[in-house]
Design goal:
The structure holds two protein chains of two kinds.
Chain A (H helix, E strand, L loop, with lengths): L1 H5 L21 H7 L15 H6 L11 H6 L3 H29 L13 H36 L7 H21 L25 H30 L1 E2 L9 H33 L11 H36 L6 H14 L15 H31 L6 H24 L1 H7 L3 H30 L5 H24 L15 H31 L30 E3 L6 E3 L30 H4 L25 H16 L2 E2 L2 E2 L2 H27 L10 E2 L8 H31 L12 H25 L3 H31 L8 H32 L8 H26 L1
Antiparallel strand pairs in A: 1-6, 2-3, 4-5
Chain B lengths: L2 H23 L5 H23 L7 H24 L2
Helix pairs in contact in B: 1-2
Classes of the chains: A mainly alpha, B mainly alpha.
Chain lengths: 891, 86
């Protein structure tokens, strides 16, 4: 992923830059800077390859009626629609699995009776949970986030449009991979929480089980790319006057969601990487006999898992806040406090995870502590709920479909929230744990959130399609949905003694389960109404203007429905306190106040603030001008074939990996096919990465606007730092796992795997020296010394190779002594943690080779930022080693 | 570039500290004293690399906070998880 980040779209205002910031000295981009207007639209880029010829040059965006358009688009609105559509597909898939379970549960049955076998039921339970939580809920919310957030903040697109498309294609690839897993001997059948040791091949030996884990891994990669992109965009690309405190609430919820995602998903990434190693390479982290193994999984999973609850719920909260404001005609009561409460929850969400572990062997002191933090996190939610209720009291409610869903969501969430407080108490949890009380509770919370998101779908449908849905069918949809929801989930509270995840239950609870099954079908039917309504309205719905809603105030309603490709007629600005579009037409007068739709302001009311030009033209620590762009000469690209190609390559790579077990491929034709898939995928991914690096892609410029608190950090640099922050958590979780296991096994009784500290020390010297040469490379490029740059980069490359050779010799030595990844938990932690670090070195070396090649052709003398940003990554890899060396070699 | 000298000095310090860590190991100190010393040396090295090679010192403080939050998150996980089984 580091390569992705380093070849990402540029957000700097320089018009003629490839988005990796790799300016071409020979013709190309540099020439354009000095030359006249760039010939980008239609101009043939130098990266004319097969794919580009097939899909057209990178700047042409085919019409929406063409399938090609949807394969190459990088526009945030297109990507938003792709997310929304794909997420709805996974909703249907997860929903069908749920209906199958409900049919099975019509009566308490012995294994083998009913429509699902025991194994099929376990798969359905696990896949339903995984699909709904990961492949439906968050991506559905991110469909709106993609579409709406740039409009609400006044940006033309996300900071790195190609990375945004890449996020989507990785998401789709991961979903397809999950579907494939059903056909590889059955998908993962150990529950959506994937508890250890059930998650290791001893208990879930199917190849499909590994595929499901890998699918989730790929999904997390997509999320990480997305997080970096959204954070950079939302912090650096806001319109003038759009201070953070003025952000519409929906955008606020997405901002906090993405921050939580950045850190939480990094912990899940570590958990899944370790689990993949256990399943594919034979490490023994989560084996039943490993010290602390099953507890380790619970810690890693729930450190991610609890913030995940708010990650999926916050966007729903945002939709609720938006629609409550629009359909009551009243600004959110206590808006400032509402935001403060959400910030508090986002922070608190990282210190409550052990309430999922009250029935494990963790000590009572920590259980008590986490009970207190858990009760604590319900308090800010009280404030939010009262704020929403009070908004309806102060305003005048109009019961249109979006509001019905949002209001319903509030009721459901209140019930879901209160029943959750029971589970937060240690004593009650002893009783409720593993029962349908938990199932009912989290469905009221999570599907309660879905309820609001469906309200969001109706709310923004006119904006996204330009047509209005059918209001009557919308109300029918809501009625069926709300009745069905409560019929399926409320009886679960009453039948709470039913054991979770199990298809057998006490016979006296049968009536509740039968009611729930009926409810499930009613709920399912409500979605048929929704799909029918939206599909017919798409073609026949009444056409709408910019703003079909009275009182809707956020900026997306100030532009046409659907909005034009680059969103705004001119540069949006809130500097005067209301939204204006500056520089419309030929005269540069601030005009077009669009009074007809009412002046759109941030929903925070009066937006104030001085023009940000002073900070925007500031100079960062390294003398790069950041911020302002040359407005007239900037022509953004909107299409690239490479994200799709990289998504395809990743699908093949991960599918291929699923064939591994104990470090070798499974035998027979299946193994051969999967090995072929791995090789083909590697080639496709490699070509795509190079293609993406070489492609001339002009990202959206950063206009004078609000950039707190990163005003003087250029987009690419900020993106790199944010990526590194997630990498800190990734390595932190790996090192934390090692520490945890070592504590469990007895710290001082633990012998380091390498008997000789020598190779480790040598590699420390090598990496430190390579960090120094990277610094020298930056110095050389600042001095415009081409040979100095090439020499320092080459030295770095040689040192990196030396590091790997030294490590190879050391590992080979250990292998000859019979020490392998699967030998014991000590060797597992040693090989996997230092191996992950080694993989970072290898990734860095590919980038180094690329930089050397470009430097050879004279690059980086005028613009040394790529060298600088690569250095940030390389030094980080060095720093990690500074801790791995003592922890694995000395102490 | 005046900073080249500074970068070189830091490189020398890093090199010396790495050697010192191994020296501590063989110095025959009590285990936890040696452990603390070695980890502190690692921490100082890391801070030097971050502050000067990654020039965080000269960047807006907000980036330091972001990295600090990430570090705190990782430490919270490690410490709380390890404490939970003591």
């Amino acid at each position: 992923m580091s390569d992705d980040a380093s070849t990402a779209g540029s957000g700097s205002g320089r018009p003629a830059e490839t988005d990796g910031g790799h300016a071409e000295p020979d013709g190309g981009a540099q020439a354009e800077t000095v030359g006249g207007p760039p010939e980008l639209p239609g101009g043939v880029a130098r990266d004319e390859g097969v794919l580009n010829r097939l899909f057209g040059t990178s700047d042409e965006l085919p019409p929406a009626s063409s399938i090609r358009r949807w394969l190459v688009t990088t526009n945030h609105k297109d990507v938003g629609i792709l997310y929304t559509g794909t997420a709805l597909f996974f909703l249907v898939l997860g929903g069908i699995l749920a209906l199958l379970m409900r049919i099975q549960l019509l009566a308490p049955r012995a294994p083998g009776q009913g429509i699902l076998s025991g194994f099929a039921y376990n798969q359905a339970v696990s896949a339903h949970g995984l699909l709904m939580v990961f492949w439906f809920l968050s991506p559905f919310a991110f469909g709106f986030a993609n579409y709406i957030v740039p409009l609400q903040i006044g940006a033309k697109d996300l900071a790195f449009p190609r990375l945004n498309a890449l996020s989507f294609w990785l998401y789709l690839a991961s979903g397809i991979l999950f579907v494939i897993s059903f056909f590889q001997g059955g998908t993962f059948a150990g529950g959506w929480t994937m508890y250890a040791p059930l998650n290791v091949p001893t208990f879930t030996p199917e190849v499909g089980g590994s595929t499901a884990v890998l699918a989730l891994l790929l999904f997390v990669a997509s999320v990480t790319v997305s997080s970096v992109n959204f954070l950079t965009t939302m912090h650096r690309m806001r319109a003038e006057g759009m201070k953070l405190r003025n952000l519409p609430i929906f955008t606020w919820t997405i901002l906090l969601t993405v921050w939580m995602m950045l850190f939480a998903f990094a912990a899940l990434l570590a958990a899944l990487m370790i689990l993949s190693a256990d399943r594919l390479l034979g490490t023994t982290y989560f084996a039943a006999e490993s010290a602390g193994g099953s507890l380790l999984w619970a810690h890693l999973f729930w450190f991610f898992g609890h913030p995940e609850v708010y990650i999926v719920f916050f966007p729903a909260l945002g939709v609720m806040a938006e629609t409550f404001q629009t359909f009551t005609g009243r600004r959110l009561v206590g808006r400032k406090w509402f935001i403060a409460a959400m910030v508090l929850v986002a922070l608190q969400s990282f210190v409550v995870w052990m309430h999922h572990m009250f029935l494990t062997s963790i000590n009572l002191e920590i259980k008590t502590l986490f009970m207190a933090t858990t009760i604590g996190i319900s308090l800010p939610f009280d404030l939010m709920v009262f704020s929403l209720i009070y908004t309806t009291i102060k305003g005048r409610i109009r019961f249109e479909t979006p509001f019905l869903f949002s209001f319903g969501a509030l009721l459901l969430f209140i019930l879901g929230g209160i029943t959750g407080v029971f589970l937060g108490a240690v004593v009650l949890d002893y009783e409720f744990r593993g029962t349908y009380w938990v199932v009912a509770h989290f469905h009221y919370v999570m599907v309660g959130g879905v309820t609001a998101l469906i309200g969001g779908l109706y709310y923004w449908f006119p904006k996204m399609t330009g047509r209005m849905y059918d209001e009557f069918l919308g109300k029918v949809n809501f009625a069926l949905y709300f009745v069905g929801f409560n019929l399926v989930y409320f009886p679960m509270f009453l039948a709470w003694e039913t054991p979770r995840r199990v298809f057998n239950y006490p016979a006296e609870l049968q009536l509740y389960h039968q009611v729930a099954t009926v409810g499930a079908f009613v709920l399912g039917a409500s979605f048929l109404v929704m799909f029918y309504n939206l599909y017919t309205s798409l073609w026949e719905g009444e056409k709408v203007g910019d703003n079909p809603w009275e009182y809707a105030k956020s900026a997306e309603w100030a532009v046409s429905s659907p909005p034009p490709l680059e969103n705004f007629p001119g540069r949006p600005s809130y500097a005067s306190g209301a939204l204006e579009f500056l520089g419309v037409g030929d005269d540069d007068e601030p005009d077009e106040r669009r009074e007809d739709e009412g002046v759109a302001a941030a929903d925070g009311g009066v937006a104030t603030g001085p023009p940000a030009t002073a900070e925007a033209s500031a100079v960062d620590a390294y003398g790069h001008e950041v911020g302002h762009g040359d407005h007239d000469d900037h022509h953004e690209s909107h299409a690239s074939p490479w994200p799709f190609a990289l998504g395809l390559g990743s699908l093949l790579v991960f599918l291929g990996l699923s064939g591994m077990k104990e470090g070798t491929f499974v035998g027979g034709a299946e193994g051969a096919i999967l090995l072929g898939s791995l090789l083909a995928g590697t080639v496709v991914s490699g070509v795509s990465l190079v293609g993406m690096g070489r492609e001339r892609f002009v990202g959206p410029e950063v206009e004078a606007g609000e950039q707190w608190p990163f005003a003087n950090v250029e987009n690419m640099k900020l993106g790199m730092w944010i990526f590194l922050a997630s990498d800190v958590v990734l390595f932190g979780a790996f090192i934390g796992s090692y520490v945890f296991i070592r504590v469990a096994a007895g710290w001082t009784g633990w012998q380091p795997i390498p008997q000789d500290v020598g190779p480790g020390l040598m590699n420390t010297y090598i990496l430190l020296t390579s960090s120094f040469t990277v610094v020298l490379a930056l110095v050389a490029s600042e001095k415009r010394s081409r040979w100095g740059l090439i020499a320092s980069l080459s030295a770095t490359f040689v040192l990196g190779i030396g590091f790997l050779i030294n490590k190879g010799i050391e590992w080979n030595h250990l292998f000859h002594e019979g020490i392998w990844l699967s030998t014991n938990i000590r060797s597992s932690t040693f090989f996997l943690t230092t191996g992950l670090h080694g993989a970072h070195v290898i990734a860095g070396l590919f980038v180094t080779a690329y930089l050397i090649w470009r430097a050879w052709n004279g690059a980086y003398l005028d613009d040394n930022r790529p060298v600088e940003y690569f250095g940030l990554y390389w030094h980080f890899v060095d720093i990690v080693w500074l801790f791995l060396f003592p922890l694995f070699y000395i102490v | 570039m005046a900073r080249t000298k500074l970068y070189t000095a830091i490189y020398v310090v890093l090199f010396a500290f790495a050697s010192a860590q191994v020296a501590v190991e063989f110095a025959g100190l009590p285990y936890w004293t040696g452990f603390a010393l070695i980890m502190v040396l690692s921490l100082v090295k890391a801070l030097l690399v971050v502050a000067y090679y990654q020039h965080l010192r000269w960047e807006p403080r907000s980036i330091t906070y972001v990295m600090g939050i990430a570090l705190v998150a990782a430490l919270a996980l490690t410490v709380a998880a390890s404490y939970s089984i003591l």
